[in-house]
Design brief:
Rossmann fold, single chain
């Protein structure tokens, strides 16, 4: 049985848009993938607010590259990994463009590749932020520039994955953020993303 680490932020954890609650098993994409795997185990490691490399002074312990070694070792051995980070890196507090966020992603990949072959790592660029994500009642930690940066992550991540020999999938090709908060996927988004990931895992001869 293949052990597959799913490392990400709130859209991997399964946050229900506009709440602090989590989609139940069978609704979040990680669990849908698990239920459809013939011979594999998804290890869920999603955390709300997680970044690639940025320390969030408002929310500690969210730095992905720092936490990854612990997650890898505690779940060892791993046969494959899915990594979907970058949305929180777009927050105004970090002032990061897509190139810098890509550098952060690479530090995460460096950690994964110490234990997992590059071709067994699936890099998933996150969904785009909605145009009104920064409005009151949604998430003012973002602004208009954040939305623009989120749109550029697909191209940046694809370029990185191709250069490093990783697999690539763009979540934004299959899912959009809910209009409730312009940041998180609804149930349909989780379902569509899970189908795309299952197909990709089959291509990778993991599922």
């Amino acid at each position: 049985m293949a052990n597959i680490l799913a490392f990400g932020d709130s859209n991997t954890w399964g946050l229900i848009p506009g709440t602090k609650e989590r989609y139940p098993w069978g609704k979040r994409w990680t669990s849908i993938v698990q239920d459809k795997l013939d011979d594999g185990r998804i290890i869920e490691d999603g955390l709300c607010g997680r970044t690639t490399v940025f320390d969030d002074q408002l929310r500690p312990f969210r730095k992905g590259a720092e936490i990854l070694p612990l997650s890898i070792e505690s779940n060892y051995p791993l046969d494959a990994a899915i990594i979907m980070l970058g949305t929180n890196d777009c927050k105004t507090i970090f002032h990061a463009n897509s190139h810098i966020i890509g550098k952060g992603l690479e530090l995460c990949l460096d950690e994964l590749e110490k234990y997992i072959a590059p071709e067994k790592i699936l890099v998933v660029s996150p969904i785009k932020l909605g145009e009104e994500v920064y409005l009151p009642g949604k998430d003012p930690e973002f602004d208009k520039a954040s939305v623009a940066v989120s749109k550029n992550l697909r191209q940046e991540y694809e370029k990185i994955a191709k250069r490093r020999g990783n697999q690539f999938l763009a979540a934004s090709d299959f899912a959009t953020p809910s209009s409730v908060d312009d940041e998180h996927m609804d149930e349909k988004g989780h379902e569509k993303l899970s189908a795309a990931i299952i197909e990709k895992l089959e291509e990778m001869q993991i599922a």
